[in-house]
Batch of 4 targets.
Target 1
Amino acid sequence: MISMSQTVAVHPLDLGCFVRPASETGGPTARVEPAVAYLVRHPRGLILFDTGIGAGSPETDAHYRPRRRGLPEALAAVGARVEDVTLVVNCHLHFDHCGGNPLFAGKPVLVQRAELAAARRTGYTIDALVDFPGAVYEALDGEAEPVPGVHVVPTPGHTPGHQSLVVRRPDGGAVVLAGQAHDTASAYAADELARRAAANGGPEPLPGHPAWLDRLADFAPRRAVFAHDHAAWEAPGPGRNA
């Protein structure tokens, strides 16, 4: 659990794993990756960021060989139920992030308008996970603050409509639920170092970084967590041990 205060906390939810084939890892071998969602406990209700690995496509299962953990079981492990969730936010609508969305018929789902449009194109995801009976989307065109101190921030790259969730801390910092904005904490760290080097006038040439990292920096993030990595990025600070 990542505790913000007595009233706001973030719980990681283990929703299984899948095997990313070598053709998608950028290396010579396949890689097993976790599927991690996050439950935000807030005085205004429970916010669920991503909903797990979807089913319904034998071809997709053969390609990724998923091992699913049910969302009701994962929520129960942190003392919550599906019916307790008041709001769903998807970082994007690929099958491994929106698999449990049909459990939330009638509940609002926040997604970028560009992402929803992409998801409705053939071959993008499993269609039944997007337009299921009772689906209620709130399509966003940029940032939003659905409840005080919780911000949706567009972080495009992996998909055109990818978004992250920023949960402010009482001390002024924040935790970034980065989804698949980066596949790993180390990849995020490398881009964040490039951003800092550029901001500090480091000598050129410098590697590029996503422009949205500058926006995330406005929240003074202390930590970032990811959908496919159990490791987290921690902001450097004085007195921190190696």
Target 2
Amino acid sequence: MKTVKNNISRRRFIGAFSAASAVAAVSGHTPAYGETAAVRNPAAPSAVRSEGEPLQIATFDVDATPPVGSQLVYGRMLNSWDLSLRARGIVLSGAGKPVVLCAIDWIGIANESQDVFKNALAVAAGTEPERVAVHTLHQHDAPICDFSAEKVMQELGIEPHCFESYFARIFLEKLARAVRESLQRLQPVTHIGTGHAPVYQVASNRRIIKDGQVGEMRSTACKNPALRAEPEGLVDPDVTLLSFWNEQAPVAVLTFYATHPQSYYLTGIANPDFPGLARSFRQLAVPDALHVHFTGAGGNIGAGKYNDGSHENRLILAQRLADGMERAWNARTLFPVSASDVAWDTVPVNLPVSETHIRDVEKQFKSPTGPFFYANNVSSVVWAKRQSAGKLINIARLRVGKACVLFMPGELFVEYQLAAKAMRPDMAVSMAAYGDYGPFYIGTSEAYRQGGYEIKSSPVTPEVEEVLTDAVRKLLK
């Protein structure tokens, strides 16, 4: 394996990107799974619907745990005694071409990897990549995946570190096979259930504002008693729930909650952390329905007020989240649905790039600081160059009767989720963030004036709020 070289110029980085990734940036080309469709007109959503077909659902559940010795985000996998990582999801059939929703217990899937995953699952389900949503829950003792970042680092003579893709490519074949085989177990969908409930003493805002600026950050595991004593701050207190039913039998339960999903990490042992535990508790409580969990817009949210990093807190946080999930389940309202009640719409977004941030990151390639630097920066640089080459990110909305789910990129601030719910108080609106991980942190325009860790790490500019809000408004109109 190549050792890190510290004399990489910005010009050489750009050249390596062009040589390794230009084709994938424009076309999404992958030898194994073909090419993604062309970028759609950003002026209006796309939609594919059909009448008269029965609405059906299939579920899939795959072990996403890497073997011992594999590369996690911040180090090697040392042993595998903890709970497994999962890739879970559903295929909805009957409303135009199938829709695939997939949630994976990894920290992020970015750029070309998003293309490859969506292409593979689209082929497996007999649909188009634009009708596939691949999201991660963002646990930190887990893999990260960006094939284009791996190519760039290899061209520069840098060890790929967390972007080493051997396991991811093997896993993707297994995941695609599971999606394909799930179609043999399609079940009718006659009803959906919606519900929501507050989760108590889990989420808190990480950004402590003093005199209009962010001072210290209340990290997800916060050992500072003074910061934990600060108010909870702006959060979305609710976990939301969307369930699919075959008459009186639940088939799948989707839940959505906005917070960073860490209790403690850097253990060298892949684990799904407290949201994965909460999901397991609910799976045991409702064993005949697959439980799929998505992390919402939790870029500026963590458990820091209620978590000092003690290992015992993982179970406590999991029980609190599972309690909210249970109350949302018990508060559910059932509605009859058919294929005509389902629509999938997308809007491609051209997010404004912070050229200053990208230049600063490129300069640091001359003296990289190790795996943390690469995990937090390379994908965002690759994303910016892909976008300048015309490769936009689609955000999507699934509507099923009175329920809407928005599928968003990056580590989105919770304000976007709250704004989306406020736009349609007449509907049950949920949000899944951590889709394409390339844009990394995405704040609000006000947040960029306040500063803080997330903003210093963000590769976009304050104008991003207007772009994303306009796209969400179109999708919810």
Target 3
Amino acid sequence: MHFRNHLNGAKLFLSPEKSIEIQNALGSDIMMAFFDECPPFPAEYDYMKASVERTSRWAERCLNANRHPEQQSLFGIVQGGEYEALRRQSASDLTSLDFPGYAIGGLSVGEPKETMNRILELTAPLLPENKPRYLMGVGSPDSLIDGAIRGIDMFDCVLPTRIARNGTCMTASGRLVIRNAQYARDFGPIDSSCDCHVCRNYSRAYIRHLVKANETFGFRLTTYHNLYFLIKLMKRVRTAIQEDRLLDFRADFF
């Protein structure tokens, strides 16, 4: 990939090997086959097929470039968009390379929720049960639960921090926009059912004041709360899995 430095316009080049070299230098515990192509939704079948083939070629180059395979785990990324045949091809290509873990990419890019769940139901069983399955770019509570139901072990997303910087908080009863005028004299916590440091020590009114004044501390508080909310949610999901009641948990949560 050729691109330009955003500061001085200098020409730069990034290859699969260079991306792994950088991740090796950073000492990442989990590295990604950085050169996977993730087309937008929707994409034509022929373009997506070429994209999957390119992703597979790059994945093998990334795997061969990893200098510390015993210390740094490299995950392959399954692509294929909404096309079941291409998802099967991508999963087959990558599992044949025997990565330490596998990511599912190309979802949560604008497709309907039903499409995402259908692709997860198809793809997850194609990946080894004894290795981590990681769904990329998904972080809303409903998608975390739905992904876990379909065999996903790991998630990541900018959602909880991004919406926190806009003053939006996750709560047991849905999203709460702390900027709203109704919270100007509300001295209760963000979420009365939450036991995080923020909910135990700061009121909605105070946090709203900070956010409205564009004080960084306010965004730190909303970010802390959102991350705590999701971490606690996933602890509850793990408990529900262990007790074989995940579907009941989903129904109760919603």
Target 4
Amino acid sequence: MPLALAAGRGTAASNDLPMFSRDRLFADVKTFSEAGNKRSGGAGDRRTADWIAERLARSGFSVERQRFDAPWFESSACELTIGEAAIGLLAQPIPATTSAEGIVGRLCLAESPDRLDGAIAVVRLPYRRWSSLLDGLVSHAVADVLERGAEAVILVTTGPTGEALLLNAPADRPAAPRPVALLAPKLAGPVIEAARFGRVARLVLTGRGGTRPAENVLGRVVRPERPWLVVSTPRSGWTDCAGERGPGVAIWLALAEWMPKIFARHSLLFVANSGHEYENLGASHLVHAFGPPQAETEFWLHLGANVATRDWQEIPGRLLPLPSADPNRFLMTSPDLVEHARAIFKGQPGIEMAYPSSEGTAGELSEIVKSGYLRHAGIFGAHRHHHAATDTLATIAPDLLAITALGLRALLLRAVPPTR
């Protein structure tokens, strides 16, 4: 039904839509994934920026880049040693580091009510698809063990994959005044057992970091005195981000190819932001410096995380792929579009139930709404491999890309009739 509805509404506008085919969309996700790690300002992020800029220019946009400084950190060592056993950790950016000799202290579970003076505190986070260091459960747990005297913190990011999950963090300050490292749940058993008995361990977290240039890529089609349509997507993240970012980027590119001809009575702004993993750093720069006047902007569409990623069956120790979409994705719109969106996306897991953005937004959509853009829609969420090293091309089912892309196309045609 969603495919038929989307296709039917677009027939009058275009009979030739190769950019929305499953094969084209999947090819773009593959190109994005193969660019490598997407940390802001790194090699993979730069390759992606160049590729996106070239595609925008090919679609008729005037392209420019907004440069800003983003943090970076590369570990030289990050591990916990208990006796003869060494267990690999991930440094949570922006980290406080140790000396090469590390910190030696007893391991203690955070749920112990006692003082933790000199200890290495082990915080077992409850099961969740973790995303941000600013999540209250995370920030309060870290603050609590540090207030009780812990010298370092190990966070066990309990979630579907069993992997350590890097958490989005502020760009302007360290994650904590003392070292914070991340431990994969699948490796946590010996550490938790040692902490129960207060065994002594050594934590080493060393590396180098600072700031480096990152860029938002912007494309414009300016038609004087015509209202603006804006489409935005983040492109950066902690991992290769095939599922987290790939679908949003691929659909964004398809819309960039399609919209200049269809919306000939509007000016267009397309934005692909870096800096996302540092709490929407790029988006905050973009909205204030390049966002068109709110009164002159007819609609803003944002394509965030988990736009169209496959779901997985969870069994002990394994995830089995499913052909359906992961339902942990949210569609938020301005009030005038809620019912239309529910009709367009009926039957599509998660986004079939659009909500008014007044009920709460997340990610970069929050920056857009709080900046006063009244008519808007956005998808965001967290699939099962969110922020994990396992967020690879295996998280993508091509049919889901096409179904979601055609739904978003239909939503645009409903929100902004091209003849208006």
